[in-house]
Design a protein that fits this description.
alpha/beta, TIM Barrel
Protein backbone atom coordinates (compact mmCIF):
# COMPACT_ATOMS: atom_id res chain seq x y z
CA UNK A 1 0.00 0.00 0.00
CA UNK A 2 1.15 3.55 -0.72
CA UNK A 3 2.34 5.68 2.21
CA UNK A 4 -0.60 7.46 3.84
CA UNK A 5 -1.45 10.90 2.50
CA UNK A 6 -3.51 13.67 4.04
CA UNK A 7 -5.30 15.41 1.18
CA UNK A 8 -5.43 19.00 2.41
CA UNK A 9 -7.62 20.26 -0.44
CA UNK A 10 -10.45 18.35 -2.08
CA UNK A 11 -14.06 19.08 -3.01
CA UNK A 12 -17.23 17.03 -2.77
CA UNK A 13 -20.03 18.04 -5.13
CA UNK A 14 -23.21 16.28 -4.12
CA UNK A 15 -26.20 16.82 -6.46
CA UNK A 16 -28.55 16.18 -3.54
CA UNK A 17 -27.68 19.63 -2.21
CA UNK A 18 -28.08 23.06 -3.84
CA UNK A 19 -25.43 24.58 -6.08
CA UNK A 20 -25.11 28.23 -7.08
CA UNK A 21 -23.86 29.12 -10.55
CA UNK A 22 -20.58 31.04 -10.23
CA UNK A 23 -19.68 33.21 -13.20
CA UNK A 24 -22.07 31.00 -15.19
CA UNK A 25 -20.35 27.79 -14.06
CA UNK A 26 -22.01 24.80 -12.40
CA UNK A 27 -19.79 21.77 -11.70
CA UNK A 28 -20.52 18.15 -12.45
CA UNK A 29 -21.24 15.84 -9.53
CA UNK A 30 -18.29 14.46 -7.59
CA UNK A 31 -19.60 12.41 -4.70
CA UNK A 32 -17.90 10.81 -1.73
CA UNK A 33 -17.90 7.54 -3.67
CA UNK A 34 -16.24 9.26 -6.65
CA UNK A 35 -13.61 10.74 -4.37
CA UNK A 36 -12.86 7.44 -2.66
CA UNK A 37 -12.52 5.68 -6.01
CA UNK A 38 -9.80 8.10 -7.13
CA UNK A 39 -8.09 8.99 -3.86
CA UNK A 40 -8.15 5.71 -1.99
CA UNK A 41 -5.81 3.77 -4.29
CA UNK A 42 -3.26 6.61 -3.99
CA UNK A 43 -3.11 6.31 -0.21
CA UNK A 44 -5.28 9.29 0.74
CA UNK A 45 -6.73 8.26 4.09
CA UNK A 46 -7.69 11.69 5.43
CA UNK A 47 -8.14 15.20 4.18
CA UNK A 48 -9.87 18.55 4.17
CA UNK A 49 -13.13 18.94 2.25
CA UNK A 50 -13.18 22.54 1.02
CA UNK A 51 -16.34 24.48 0.17
CA UNK A 52 -16.33 25.90 -3.35
CA UNK A 53 -17.69 29.17 -4.69
CA UNK A 54 -20.66 27.29 -6.13
CA UNK A 55 -21.66 26.02 -2.67
CA UNK A 56 -22.01 29.42 -1.02
CA UNK A 57 -22.91 29.24 2.65
CA UNK A 58 -24.67 25.86 2.47
CA UNK A 59 -23.40 23.52 5.20
CA UNK A 60 -25.60 20.50 4.57
CA UNK A 61 -23.48 18.98 1.82
CA UNK A 62 -20.34 19.42 3.95
CA UNK A 63 -21.81 17.85 7.07
CA UNK A 64 -23.10 14.90 5.04
CA UNK A 65 -19.72 14.43 3.36
CA UNK A 66 -17.79 14.53 6.63
CA UNK A 67 -20.16 12.03 8.21
CA UNK A 68 -19.63 9.60 5.32
CA UNK A 69 -15.87 10.11 5.06
CA UNK A 70 -15.39 9.55 8.76
CA UNK A 71 -12.45 10.18 11.12
CA UNK A 72 -9.40 11.77 9.58
CA UNK A 73 -11.39 14.17 7.40
CA UNK A 74 -12.17 17.76 8.33
CA UNK A 75 -14.13 20.59 6.73
CA UNK A 76 -13.23 24.03 5.41
CA UNK A 77 -16.37 26.11 5.09
CA UNK A 78 -17.67 29.51 4.02
CA UNK A 79 -19.81 31.48 6.44
CA UNK A 80 -21.62 34.82 6.60
CA UNK A 81 -20.55 37.42 9.12
CA UNK A 82 -23.73 36.98 11.16
CA UNK A 83 -23.20 33.26 11.84
CA UNK A 84 -24.18 32.52 15.42
CA UNK A 85 -21.92 31.10 18.11
CA UNK A 86 -24.23 28.09 18.34
CA UNK A 87 -23.83 27.40 14.61
CA UNK A 88 -20.06 27.65 14.90
CA UNK A 89 -20.00 25.21 17.79
CA UNK A 90 -22.18 22.74 15.86
CA UNK A 91 -19.89 22.93 12.83
CA UNK A 92 -16.83 22.44 15.00
CA UNK A 93 -18.40 19.37 16.60
CA UNK A 94 -19.04 17.97 13.11
CA UNK A 95 -15.37 18.34 12.16
CA UNK A 96 -15.13 21.76 10.51
CA UNK A 97 -11.72 23.30 11.25
CA UNK A 98 -11.29 26.32 8.99
CA UNK A 99 -13.01 29.26 7.31
CA UNK A 100 -12.44 29.98 3.63
CA UNK A 101 -12.31 33.34 1.87
CA UNK A 102 -12.61 32.92 -1.88
CA UNK A 103 -11.13 36.18 -3.13
CA UNK A 104 -10.64 34.89 -6.67
CA UNK A 105 -14.14 33.64 -7.49
CA UNK A 106 -16.39 34.95 -4.74
CA UNK A 107 -19.12 32.99 -3.01
CA UNK A 108 -17.66 33.59 0.44
CA UNK A 109 -17.65 36.46 2.91
CA UNK A 110 -15.88 39.53 1.46
CA UNK A 111 -12.32 40.59 2.23
CA UNK A 112 -13.57 43.43 4.45
CA UNK A 113 -14.75 40.83 6.96
CA UNK A 114 -11.51 38.82 7.01
CA UNK A 115 -9.85 40.11 10.17
CA UNK A 116 -12.92 40.16 12.40
CA UNK A 117 -14.08 36.70 11.34
CA UNK A 118 -10.58 35.19 11.44
CA UNK A 119 -9.99 36.43 14.98
CA UNK A 120 -13.43 35.29 16.10
CA UNK A 121 -13.19 31.70 14.85
CA UNK A 122 -9.63 31.29 16.08
CA UNK A 123 -10.34 32.67 19.55
CA UNK A 124 -13.52 30.63 20.01
CA UNK A 125 -12.68 27.41 18.16
CA UNK A 126 -9.03 27.36 17.17
CA UNK A 127 -9.91 27.51 13.45
CA UNK A 128 -7.63 29.06 10.86
CA UNK A 129 -8.57 30.88 7.64
CA UNK A 130 -7.81 29.78 4.09
CA UNK A 131 -7.53 32.12 1.12
CA UNK A 132 -8.11 31.38 -2.53
CA UNK A 133 -6.26 34.36 -3.94
CA UNK A 134 -4.01 35.20 -6.85
CA UNK A 135 -0.59 35.88 -5.33
CA UNK A 136 -0.30 39.04 -7.40
CA UNK A 137 -2.71 40.54 -4.85
CA UNK A 138 -0.68 39.44 -1.83
CA UNK A 139 1.72 42.41 -1.54
CA UNK A 140 -1.25 44.58 -0.56
CA UNK A 141 -2.47 41.94 1.91
CA UNK A 142 0.75 40.80 3.60
CA UNK A 143 0.52 43.12 6.60
CA UNK A 144 -3.11 42.18 7.20
CA UNK A 145 -2.44 38.46 6.91
CA UNK A 146 0.51 38.54 9.28
CA UNK A 147 -1.73 40.05 11.95
CA UNK A 148 -3.93 36.94 11.87
CA UNK A 149 -3.24 33.93 14.09
CA UNK A 150 -3.29 31.19 11.43
CA UNK A 151 -3.59 31.38 7.63
CA UNK A 152 -3.13 29.18 4.57
CA UNK A 153 -3.06 30.05 0.87
CA UNK A 154 -4.47 27.79 -1.85
CA UNK A 155 -2.81 26.49 -5.02
CA UNK A 156 0.73 27.79 -4.39
CA UNK A 157 -0.66 31.29 -4.96
CA UNK A 158 -1.32 30.60 -8.68
CA UNK A 159 0.95 33.27 -10.19
CA UNK A 160 4.73 33.49 -10.61
CA UNK A 161 4.57 37.26 -10.22
CA UNK A 162 3.38 36.85 -6.63
CA UNK A 163 5.96 34.28 -5.52
CA UNK A 164 8.10 36.75 -3.54
CA UNK A 165 5.06 37.46 -1.34
CA UNK A 166 4.30 33.75 -1.00
CA UNK A 167 7.84 33.11 0.18
CA UNK A 168 7.80 35.99 2.64
CA UNK A 169 4.52 34.79 4.10
CA UNK A 170 5.77 31.21 4.33
CA UNK A 171 8.84 32.41 6.22
CA UNK A 172 6.49 34.04 8.73
CA UNK A 173 4.41 30.90 9.30
CA UNK A 174 1.66 31.11 6.67
CA UNK A 175 0.90 27.65 5.23
CA UNK A 176 0.88 27.10 1.49
CA UNK A 177 -1.23 24.41 -0.16
CA UNK A 178 0.69 22.37 -2.71
CA UNK A 179 -2.36 21.69 -4.85
CA UNK A 180 -3.80 22.66 -8.19
CA UNK A 181 -0.54 22.17 -10.07
CA UNK A 182 -2.50 22.47 -13.30
CA UNK A 183 -3.71 25.95 -12.32
CA UNK A 184 -0.35 27.70 -11.85
CA UNK A 185 1.70 29.62 -14.42
CA UNK A 186 5.14 28.36 -13.33
CA UNK A 187 7.22 25.20 -13.03
CA UNK A 188 6.04 23.55 -9.82
CA UNK A 189 9.09 21.61 -8.62
CA UNK A 190 11.48 24.55 -8.05
CA UNK A 191 8.73 26.55 -6.35
CA UNK A 192 8.05 23.66 -3.96
CA UNK A 193 11.75 23.61 -3.14
CA UNK A 194 11.86 27.36 -2.53
CA UNK A 195 8.87 27.24 -0.19
CA UNK A 196 10.23 24.22 1.67
CA UNK A 197 13.53 26.00 2.22
CA UNK A 198 11.72 29.10 3.44
CA UNK A 199 9.73 27.05 5.97
CA UNK A 200 9.71 23.23 6.00
CA UNK A 201 6.37 23.29 7.86
CA UNK A 202 4.57 25.42 5.27
CA UNK A 203 3.67 23.04 2.44
CA UNK A 204 0.50 20.94 2.62
CA UNK A 205 -0.30 18.66 -0.32
CA UNK A 206 -3.82 18.61 -1.74
CA UNK A 207 -5.27 16.74 -4.70
CA UNK A 208 -7.70 19.53 -5.65
CA UNK A 209 -10.05 16.76 -6.83
CA UNK A 210 -12.13 17.03 -8.95
CA UNK A 211 -10.14 20.05 -10.24
CA UNK A 212 -13.14 22.03 -11.42
CA UNK A 213 -12.23 24.68 -14.02
CA UNK A 214 -8.52 23.78 -13.85
CA UNK A 215 -6.68 23.91 -17.19
CA UNK A 216 -5.14 20.59 -16.22
CA UNK A 217 -6.76 18.28 -13.67
CA UNK A 218 -4.97 16.49 -10.84
CA UNK A 219 -2.90 13.48 -11.90
CA UNK A 220 -1.36 10.76 -9.76
CA UNK A 221 2.00 11.91 -11.09
CA UNK A 222 1.61 15.15 -9.13
CA UNK A 223 2.42 13.19 -5.96
CA UNK A 224 5.60 11.82 -7.53
CA UNK A 225 6.52 15.31 -8.71
CA UNK A 226 6.30 16.58 -5.13
CA UNK A 227 8.21 13.62 -3.73
CA UNK A 228 11.02 14.02 -6.26
CA UNK A 229 11.25 17.76 -5.58
CA UNK A 230 11.32 17.54 -1.78
CA UNK A 231 13.02 14.24 -1.03
CA UNK A 232 11.84 11.64 1.46
CA UNK A 233 11.72 13.78 4.61
CA UNK A 234 10.31 16.86 2.89
CA UNK A 235 7.67 14.81 1.09
CA UNK A 236 6.56 13.16 4.33
CA UNK A 237 6.08 16.58 5.88
CA UNK A 238 4.13 17.96 2.90
CA UNK A 239 2.05 14.82 2.34
CA UNK A 240 1.16 14.09 5.96
CA UNK A 241 2.78 15.79 8.95
CA UNK A 242 2.28 19.49 8.20
CA UNK A 243 -1.42 19.39 7.38
CA UNK A 244 -2.32 16.94 10.13
CA UNK A 245 -0.71 19.30 12.63
CA UNK A 246 -2.29 22.43 11.12
CA UNK A 247 -5.77 20.88 11.16
CA UNK A 248 -5.16 19.73 14.74
CA UNK A 249 -5.41 16.03 14.02
CA UNK A 250 -2.06 14.98 15.46
Amino acid sequence: MASPIFDAHCHIIDPNYPLIANQGFLPDAFTVDDYRAQAGPLGMVGGAVVSGSFQGFDQRYLLAALQRLGPGFVGVTQLPEDVSDAQLLALDAAGVRALRFNLKRGGSAPLEQLEAMALRVHANLGWHVELYVDARELPDLETRLLRLPAVSIDHLGLSHAGLPSVLRLAEQGVRIKACGFGRVDFAVAPVLQHIHRANPHALMFGSDLPSTRAPRAFEAGDIALLADALGEDGARMALWDNARRFYRLG
